[in-house]
Amino acid sequence: MKSVNVWWLAKVVVGVVWLGSGVELQAQRLTWLGTLPGGNFSYATGVSADGSVVVGWAQSANGLTHAFRWTQSGGMQDLGTLGGLLSDARGVSADGSVVVGTAWNASVQFRAFRWTASGGMQDLGTLGGSTSEADGVSADGSVVVGVAENASGEWRAFRWTQSGGMEDLGTLGGNGSTAYGVSADGSVVVGVAENASGLSRAFRWTASGGMQDLGTLGGNESKAYGVSADGSVVAGWARNASYEFRAFRWTASGGMQDLGTLGGNESKAYGVSADGSVVAGWARNASYEFRAFRWTVSGGMEDLGTLGGNGGVARGVSADGSVVVGWARSASNQGRAFRWTVSGGMEDLNQTYAALLGSGSWLEVATAISPDGRYIVGWGWNAATGRTEAFLLDTEGTTTAVESRGFKDGLQGELRIFPMPSAGAATLRFVSEQVGPVILEVVDVLGRVVFQWSGQVERVGVQSLGVSMGGLSSGRYHVRLRLPGHEVLTAPLMIVR
Hints:
CATH class of the largest domain: Mainly Beta
Number of domains: 2
Radius of gyration: 24 Å
Largest sheet: 4 strands, antiparallel
CATH topology of the largest domain: Neuraminidase
Number of helices: 1
Structural class: mainly beta
Strand order of the largest sheet: 1-42-39-38
CATH superfamily of the largest domain: TolB, C-terminal domain
Strand content: over 45%
């Protein structure tokens, strides 16, 4: 972990503290992303780690759909095609600089693409055939995975790099394979491949070990969709001996584990936390209704509930696994975007953030969430424009040093950090109602704890904690402060050098 120095600046029992630099709260924000000029709809499929970039696809004036990249400063940018009519974006790098997806070329062949601001839309080619698709990208954007056609017309999983181009990852003895996911550093690829009997099997690929068959749960079929940041945990679904679909979690030491159901006979997993300890997906309950679930090593499979209706599906999970997003049925059987948290359970985003929605508008589906759980993207109905549009929801306010101000009330239950952005040192201010141990963690955008410190609160009241962050590089982080009594305070942290 990086070196970070911590010191107590003051321990004040009274309720009023005057600061040299006060704070101002920036409100939560819902941004409708609009469409491409002349279009009637847009859909968001991914978001960068800091929420500054959203990708997806939208309709243009000619009625055709194109991949887009949206930024706060530039709005919705049409990423174009490879000479054909259509394109869509399916993945984005952590910093938002690289977008991957599929586009048509002038010969009406769909091709995997990688887009950057400097290079535009790059055709990643094929494996000797005519078509390819990109489905995943590494955190730094240097590795792209997907499926491509070879010279024999067979579909093969591929891994693309700038230096090596498109690499055929092979099969498990059969004819075809497809890659769906990639680890943060691009070294591990997961997906599905045919074995010698022509049956589909989940695979995990590494450069050193090649393509590994992850097996089944007693049946004859399995597929892998999600992988942890370091590639050690794989999630997906497999058939059991009764030919039922079951969500699984695979590790090298434990093999393929059946995650069970919610009383029904089916489940499928699609998302996994950065460390692999949390898996999300959907499962049938005893009434044969599909429900979003969150599975943990300690607690097993948990029904995330509904919004009054009879169904729900989890679409995304934060890096630490504490936040899950997706869609669920309301009491009137309408699809609505949800967020689930450990402390708050399932929330209808339309109710939680009703003040941000105009009259007649609603958020229908949440498709992805930033690693720190702050930014949520998806699509819904924008009544102001009368069309379906992609949205970006910033669920938190940020604290920024802007003026001198004293405060008393309002600090309770909050963690305030200033100055923000920080150039190398910051002050954390909070209230502790109890004496006892306190733990400070700094987490990066991939959910990794890059610093942990423990100390002691000796007197109740307002606390000031100084942190020197000389060992941390520029970027966005998240601070977690665990107080005596197990209360947890969180706040975003930006370092600019």
